[in-house]
Amino acid sequence: MGHRLQLAAVSHCYVEGKCAIIDIDLAIEQGEQVALIGPSGAGKTTLLHTLALALEPTRGTFSWGGSNPWLMASRARHQLRAHSFLAPQQPPLPPRQRVVHAVLAARLTRAGAWSALRSLLTTPADTDVREAYTALEAFRLQDKLWLRCDRLSGGERQRVGLARMFVAASPVNLLDEPVSSLDPVLGAASLAAVQANAAARNATMVVSLHDVNLARERFSRLIGLKDGLLQFDLPTEAVTEERLRELYGAEFGMAVANFGLPDASTSQQNVIVTGCG
What we know:
By secondary structure, this protein is α/β, with parallel strands linked by helices. The protein is 34% helix and 22% strand.
């Protein structure tokens, strides 16, 4: 089955008259990399959870590879859900768990249950340790391999969450504010690392970002959400400052703080390319 994601008039409502996303029409092709932008409470997280099959639309149709997952048997839907990797803004890492185990836990989606459980409860095999080390090395965290997760800073926890994406090797990757706790240079480098990993596997990536300039620098397609509504779905060069001011309103200055809005025609040439390891 392919991994084309399509939403047709999809809404997710919690109570009558209160919807997090409203009548979203959207198609994302396999291998695309897309950024979601918009003010706080716009519906970005809800949209990501909908794409991950964590939330069922209350109306509209979601299609994955031409099939509606919510019309499948629960077992089949669970198997399909295993093809996506969802990274929340704050990764739920067990505090007493070692980083190596936390990273390898991402294999739960592609390893047998017994094999995955054994890797969590015992000392990992040398090949598994090397896999975790390589993933962490991409984010300058290889020295944290045997550290307990409760010894990590917020930014380190986010980068461990991104290293888990490398190990999961899922065809669909959904990242919610993945670099919000990182400084601009490290954030750009970390985002570049996950994008390169996804591109090498022809994996789909949908990323929500608060940093407008980072989104413009790293992505060729931007999707703007506000109050649960799709405001635009455009090539980056077509997203003007006027559109962004309409999207963010009072939050516009905060969204571009300390960076200065770059010229869209040249932003793709000004990407930060600092390596990660």
